[in-house]
């Protein structure tokens, strides 16, 4: 094997695309390389499904396009999809027994858009069941291990996506972010991930958890890669997604190298309170100092309702989940109980067998808060406070251009450490939930390392439609530091 082809996994999306365009390597060779690595690293639990014949046929098509000069910035580059996006050629399970072996009759819009740009689908990535979880321990099939330390969680719910990118099993992955499910695993695995403004990327073909919060986004090693991917996946899809925004697609790479001179970075005091561990704080502070060196100015701000984001989110999201997951009843598709006496018994047994504990927990919470007598007391109140949280951000953006802080209070915790205490899992989302509730774009950028040599992510939050500004900030930090290019020490060379 040539030296170029033996280290293909170390190349970023942008570097791979350049090699493919110059014909230094073929899309087939790249695809075979990543498939071989992914199979060899099966112990990480990142992938749930492959279809080698389909992936290689896409690669051959990409090579033909390159030969004919019909190339986009991503033609021939592999990507793997979180198993929340439905696909015709791979099973779509959402990490649940409820959908074991299910094949969709269509591809989601995001999968379609990447295929249209010439990318190759490597396979489907593991995730928390129906995207409900913060550690990828809720998958019905297998746990995902953090490539930096196999005894720790990779974050959730897009844990398979983050682990696969960090372990160099794919150059890029799709994720979904409902309350932090792109940003938190990106932070825990030392990669870059961005959740765009709610409605920027189509939700058509995403298996729904909480419809007013779910948003697709890219995960890769660099901000430059995320900019290329986001440009390809965003844009209106008005005929198929009622939550899609009628805003044209953008080239998010256009301002990556812009100066940060005079940029005002808001530092919310609520993100640096006693719940933040000392190692994460020190790492985030060091990253903010880098921004000061680049000409940015730190501005103290307040997001007073930060703490309320947890109860608000854990009322609204389960309520929407309770409604969305009522379609999984064993009648038309998915799992159906074998032995039942009547229709009601079939519903009960199917749902008891098909759903895991966390999903059942959230369905029950959601059904409770939507029930007669509690709707006004809980759900309506939560929606009012959600509006106030969004207003807090708008007040803050009068004083600053971008908001920065930690992604999570600690580094990735040990597998099983919080399994018996769901609330402890929920509390870990405190810094990512506010931006989700407000529908704002947010991203995680590798900022350094904390306890146990584990990665720490810096969270950047922008006002609506400011993804290009966030990517510019992340890119400039990545030009000044090398945290995004560090490799997990546990990687087995030769795979």
Give me some keywords for this one:
8-stranded mixed sheet; globular; 37% helix; 495 residues; 16 helices; Amidase signature (AS) enzymes; alpha/beta; 3-stranded mixed sheet
What does this structure look like?
With 495 residues, the chain is α/β, with parallel strands linked by helices. The chain has a domain of 275 residues: Amidase signature (AS) domain (Amidase signature (AS) enzymes, Alpha-Beta Complex). 37% of the residues lie in helices and 13% in strands. The chain has 16 helices and eleven strands. The strands form two sheets. It has an eight-stranded mixed beta sheet with strand order 4-6-5-10-11-9-7-8. A three-stranded mixed beta sheet has the order 1-3-2. Strand 7, helix 9 and strand 8 form a beta-alpha-beta unit. Helix 8 runs antiparallel to helix 16, helix 10 crosses helix 12 and helix 10 packs across helix 13. The longest helix has 22 residues.
How is this fold's topology laid out?
Blueprint: H1 3-6, H2 13-21, H3 27-40, E1 47-50, H4 52-67, E2 78-82, H5 109-116, E3 120-125, H6 159-166, E4 172-177, H7 183-189, E5 192-195, E6 215-220, H8 223-233, E7 264-268, H9 278-293, E8 297-301, H10 309-324, H11 343-354, H12 357-369, H13 375-396, E9 402-406, H14 422-427, H15 433-438, E10 442-449, E11 455-462, H16 467-480
Parallel strand pairs: 2-3, 7-8, 7-9
Antiparallel strand pairs: 1-3, 4-6, 5-6, 5-10, 9-11, 10-11
């Amino acid at each position: 094997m040539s030296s170029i082809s033996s280290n293909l996994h170390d190349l970023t999306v942008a570097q791979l695309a350049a090699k493919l365009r110059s014909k230094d390597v073929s899309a087939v060779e790249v695809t075979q390389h990543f498939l071989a690595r992914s199979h060899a690293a099966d112990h990480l639990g990142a992938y749930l499904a492959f279809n080698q014949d389909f992936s290689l046929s896409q690669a051959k098509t990409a090579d033909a396009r390159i030969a004919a000069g019909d190339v986009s910035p991503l033609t021939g580059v592999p990507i793997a999809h979180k198993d929340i996006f439905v696909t015709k050629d791979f099973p779509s399970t959402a990490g649940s027994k409820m959908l074991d072996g299910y094949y969709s009759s269509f591809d989601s819009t995001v999968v379609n858009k990447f295929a249209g740009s010439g990318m190759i689908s490597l396979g489907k990535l593991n995730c928390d069941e129906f995207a409900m979880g913060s550690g990828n321990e809720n998958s019905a099939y297998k746990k995902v291990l953090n490539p930096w330390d196999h005894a720790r969680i990779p974050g959730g719910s897009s844990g398979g996506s983050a682990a696969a990118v960090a372990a160099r099993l794919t150059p890029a992955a799709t994720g979904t972010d409902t309350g932090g499910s792109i940003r938190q695993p990106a932070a825990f695995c030392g990669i870059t991930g961005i959740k765009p403004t709610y409605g920027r990327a189509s939700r058509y073909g995403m298996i729904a958890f909480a419809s007013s919060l779910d948003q697709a986004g890219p995960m890769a090693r660099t901000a430059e890669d995320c900019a290329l991917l986001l440009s390809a996946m965003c844009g209106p899809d008005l005929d198929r997604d009622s939550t899609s925004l009628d805003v044209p697609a953008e080239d998010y790479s256009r301002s990556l190298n812009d100066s940060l001179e005079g940029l005002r970075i808001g530092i919310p005091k609520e993100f640096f309170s006693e719940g933040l561990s000392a190692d994460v704080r020190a790492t985030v502070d060091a990253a903010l100092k880098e921004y000061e060196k680049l000409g940015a100015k730190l501005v103290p701000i307040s997001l007073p309702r930060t703490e309320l984001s947890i109860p608000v989110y854990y009322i609204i999201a389960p309520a929407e989940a309770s409604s969305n997951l009522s379609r999984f009843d064993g009648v038309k598709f998915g799992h159906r109980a074998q032995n039942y006496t009547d229709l009601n018994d079939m519903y009960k047994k199917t749902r008891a067998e098909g759903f895991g504990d966390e999903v059942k927990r959230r369905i029950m919470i959601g059904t409770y808060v939507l029930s007669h007598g509690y709707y006004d007391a809980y759900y309506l109140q939560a929606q009012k406070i959600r509006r106030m949280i969004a207003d807090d951000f708008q007040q803050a953006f009068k004083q600053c251009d971008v908001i920065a802080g930690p992604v999570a209070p600690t580094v990735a915790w040990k597998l099983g450490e919080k399994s018996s205490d769901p609330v402890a899992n929920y509390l870990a989302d405190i810094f990512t939930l506010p931006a989700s509730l407000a529908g704002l774009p947010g991203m995680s950028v590798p900022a350094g390392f904390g306890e146990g040599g584990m990665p720490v992510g810096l969270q950047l939050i922008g006002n609506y439609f400011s993804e290009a500004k966030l990517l510019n900030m992340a890119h400039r930090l990545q030009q000044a530091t090398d945290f995004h290019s560090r490799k997990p020490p546990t990687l087995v060379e030769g795979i």
